[in-house]
Amino acid sequence: MKIHKLVLGAVGAMVLLGSLIASSASARVFSADSQSITASFSEVIFREPAFGATANCRVTLEGSLHSATVDKTPGTLIGSITRGIVGQCVGTTGGTILQETLPWNVRYSGFEGPLPEIRSLIIHVIGAAFRARLSNGITCLARTELNEPGRGRFHFDAAPSNHVRAGIEGAIRTGSECGGFRGTLSTEVTSRYVKRSGTTTAISVTLI
After folding, report:
1. pLDDT in tens, 170-188
2. Is residue 33 in some structural domain?
3. What pLDDT digit, counting tens, does each position of 74-116 carry?
4. In total, how many domains does the chain have?
5. In terms of residue numbers, what domain contains 55?
6. What is the pTM of this model?
7. Residue 173 to residues 20, 60, 96, 198, Cα–Cα distance (Å)
8. Does residue 82 lie within any of the structural domains?
9. Residue 61 domain-assigned (yes or no)
10. What helix, strand, coil percent values describe the chain, rounded to 5?
């Protein structure tokens, strides 16, 4: 009888584990409560590799998702960045977003963290272009391409809010005027919450 109970208990545990795994695996899409979003950064830093010269500016990006849900399929076009604003810069540095290159494509790339407790969603931004005046006085043009995309992360707060903070990182190629070097982009560790465009309301993203 004791062995029988142990077997039943083991079977029950396996069934429960299987149901949890199935539930996690079935969570195939991210759901956002707004398709129109704004991300503001107190500093976006562009750094060239040879001498470490930088440009450091406030930046606001506005965009939209093509759908309220995002499928977890790498490479999927999920939205676009439609407006970019460069604000105050540090010291003598400066920057200008090339408005004629907008909109920029946003593609889903992956996620970080174990299902279902995902920590962040990774996106690739293609076609982003700007002019940066570096701290050494040089001005560089830079643009992200399909094979060298800009990379962003949406970091999730824990439930129940599921609010999102954004980050920018990765390498970006400069033009011939700066030797075609691959500069790096980075943002402050913790950004402001991503908002619904035109409001002060933070968006929420959940896995369903």
Report:
1. 889 999 888 898 999 998 7
2. yes
3. 999 999 999 999 999 999 999 999 999 999 999 999 999 887 7
4. 1
5. 29-207
6. 0.83
7. 44, 21, 16, 32
8. yes
9. yes
10. 15, 50, 35
